[in-house]
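On clarity, I found the account of how folds are encoded harder to follow than it need be. What matters is that the chain and its backbone geometry are given together, residue for residue. For the editor and my fellow referees, an illustration may be useful. For illustration, here is how one protein appears when written out as sequence plus structure tokens:

___
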Amino acid sequence: MGASTRIRAVTALCALAVALLSEPAAAEISFTEEAPSPYAVGTNPFGVVAADFNNDTRPDLAAVNGTSSSLSVFLRHPTSGFVQEGGSPFPVGGGPNYAAVADFNKDGLRDIATSDFAGNTVTVLVRHPTGGFVHEPPIGVPNNPSAIAAGDFNGDTWPDLAVARWSDGLITPLYRTPMGGFNVGAPIMAGANPRQIAVGNFNGDAISDIAVTLNGASPGRVTVILGSPGGLSSTSIAPLVGERPEGVVAHDFNGDGRSDLAVANNGTNNVTILLRNAANTNFDAGPVIPVGANPVGLALGDFDGDGRQDLATANNGEGSVRVLRRKEDGGFAPDPVVPIALGSPPYGIAAGDFNGDSRADLAVTMNATGQLRVLLSTTGTPGSPPPPDQPPAAQQPSPPVARMSINPAPTCIGRSTAFDGSGSSSPNGSIVNYRFEYSERYYPSTVSTEEAIRNVVVSDGPNPIAYRSFDYNLVSSLGGTGRGGGGADSLRADPDIRAAAFVTRDPVDMKLTITDPSGAQASTTQRANFQIPCSLPLESPTVFQPLSAATSVVSATTAAKTLSVRTRCPGIVSCLGDASISTLGFNGKVVASRRKARSVTIAKGSLAVPAGKRQTAKLKVTSRGRRLLRSPGRRKVKITFRTKSPQGKTVSRSRNATLRVRKRG
């Protein structure tokens, strides 16, 4: 090689080196805590989930509070930060640890289910359209439910649940039914101390499968159970991972159309990647990446905005979060090299794009301090300034917080109960208005076969307590016996129903909306279950209070007149019964009610008077004879108001009035 050739080669190599050195390296992944984080939650929070609960396109957060047995829900503020929702924390079963999110009733709103370790139950909270959650009846799952996940495990398009049982190593499948509720499936063996569950599609058949980490297995394993048209299979595989595995996520890392796995190993301080094999029968061992001490939580998200899914671990032993960045060659590498220090042990971790910048952010529960911390990704290119800090949510006026209790808690049809509301004092002053309302199903008419839904306002004013009584099983309506629901308010609003009884075998979801002096509002919803008949001793009914029986004039030529009587229902329970002219006296003779004597007919009118309200009844008196009503003069009338209790006991009160008859013209 000549001298000139060597010079050109050296020059080319130098140019290539300069070019390589001048290429910008990928920016290091970085996070900053968003004000006003940290947020106070309940005692010993474990899991955390990120989902859009109020359908505003922004991810919200729910932290599962173990010792306080509740769920703290925070809604994303349009500007920045999170605001705890009215009614939060929501009570759940004893000692919950993790939560699953799905639209269980297909109403377009995301619901939540928790695994309640100490209570041996699963709590399902259905999202209410106007905010808050409504509890479905708890589902019993024995032997310490330790994890929960949602997916369509039988291919019927309804979200199901898989619940891990810590003490006996089984999985209980709960299959959602179109009519509501869950059918409990046969338990499936997973292995020693199942800890967390991931849902994926491991065999590519479009039916959800599960992967369960076995914290008590040695060596460590993750059990994979496939879904099928018949539900979760009774057979499984259990590939090896590190010791004491905890967190697990499912994702198609290699792009073959089938889910792979990443597992956080608490005992060996690393993350194992398992890739679905080409034969679609098991998993091939992938890389094992070191992370911080005792990882518990594992989250999946694109933290640098490059379109590839990265991983983040919550390291309980060293009080940190570590990020494993997905590389172009498909591997993972710690980035940043230095862990993100949190100062105290984290537990649960969830990812979501909280501020809408196309980069995943993190939410972490702090088990020891009872806090939820929010970390925003600030990853950018070298030389570019970091994203500006968002204005703190604390600068926004704090909305009031609504709370409501039920006292006594109803246990059966026939009980009366009070919904007791309260509101926090907002910076704008004390609460000035309490509005109680509930949604009910009813039949629009006596011949209807399709139910409708309407809202019934029970109370709207400064009173923080609303009383409701749910008593009878049938209503009498014009033309026969019909069906009705809700309460005296709904009967009064329905012109087709003429009786004073109603039915509710369904739960009643009462919503409280509070308003402060500035007009800011908050709401919460509580469910009262009236689902079985009461077995109660006879109770005295709330008795009508007769107010007046207006003097009525009957034309001597038509001999027909309607007598108006007014009554009031005192107390806190609706009055149900009737009013009638019990006697009509003329020339010393008495005509009994509901009988024809000398061609006189005296009618009876039904009454359904809400507690504390008044009502007018129309009682029609007719006669075809000459003496009793056609002759001018005065007739003494006795009006009887009869009230019935839910158990059938009757109490009556009477009032006297005068009926005056005069000649027409």
The chain has a mean pLDDT of 76. Helices lie at 3-22, 488-493. The chain has two helices and 52 strands. Residues 3-22 form the longest helix (20 residues).
